[in-house]
Amino acid sequence: MAPSLTTSAAGRTYDFSRVVGGRQQMNGIISMAFGQDDDVYITQKALLFFDVSRLKIGPEPDDEELVMSFRDIDPNNFEGAWPACLAVGPDQDVYVTDELRHLISVFDGDGHFIRNFGQPGTGPGQFDRPSGIIFAADGSMYVSDTLNHRIQHLTSAGEFIH
């Protein structure tokens, strides 16, 4: 059996093994977030490779499947991108921080691009290497704006709150 890491989330135990990764479909996982129906979204960075993917993880060891790669849907959405972290919003859209383009990209759960928001800079709603992202209970988000040395509070539409 492949080595695995077991963790509990939302009252359920997930067993994440190296089965999918062993097939070299995942490389350099740096962020993950849970969606609905056992969906797990991940960002990957390794050398010049990067991607956002959706997995299904079942209750049994080795019960996992790489459902799809966002990059396969439309590779142009990742031109010049460097995804860092992701979060699943209350609308079940996937929000991905992009450290090179200094913005947040939003995709539906099937990997289709919806919109970008943000731009390089130091003002409200502007970023310099946005990395972490998390949603609050009220549906707003917090983004770590790494090289501006701050955390920005935004609506899910990307409007600056404070």
Which tags fit this structure?
162 residues, mainly beta, Neuraminidase, 4-stranded antiparallel beta sheet, 2 helices, globular, disordered N terminus
Shape: globular
The profile of the biggest β sheet is: 4 strands, antiparallel
Give the CATH superfamily. TolB, C-terminal domain
* CATH domain topology: Neuraminidase
Q: Estimate the mean pLDDT confidence.
A: 82
Structural class: mainly beta
Number of strands: 13
Q: Which percent band covers the strand fraction?
A: over 45%
User: C-alpha Rg, in Å?
Assistant: 16 Å
Q: Please give the CATH architecture.
A: 6 Propeller
Q: In DSSP terms, counting alpha (H) and pi (I) runs of 4 or more, how many helices?
A: 2
**Fraction of residues in helix:** under 10%
Could you give the order of the helices and strands? Answer: EEHEEEEHEEEEEEE
- CATH class categorisation: Mainly Beta
- End-to-end CA span: 49 Å
Low-confidence stretches: 1-9, 14-24
How would you characterize the overall build of this protein?
The protein has helices at residues 19-22, 70-73, and strands at 4-9, 12-17, 29-34, 39-46, 49-57, 64-69, 83-88, 94-98, 103-107, 113-117, 130-135, 141-145, 150-154. The longest helix is centred in the first third of the chain and has 4 residues, at 19-22. With 162 residues, it is mainly beta. It has one domain (29-55, 62-154): 6 Propeller (Neuraminidase). Mean pLDDT is 82; it is low at 1-9 and 14-24. 5% of the residues lie in helices and 48% in strands. The strands form four sheets. Strands 3-4-5-6 form a four-stranded antiparallel beta sheet. A four-stranded antiparallel beta sheet has the order 7-8-9-10, with no helix packed on it. A three-stranded antiparallel beta sheet has the order 11-12-13, with no helix packed on it. The protein is built from two helices and 13 strands. It is globular and about 45 Å long.
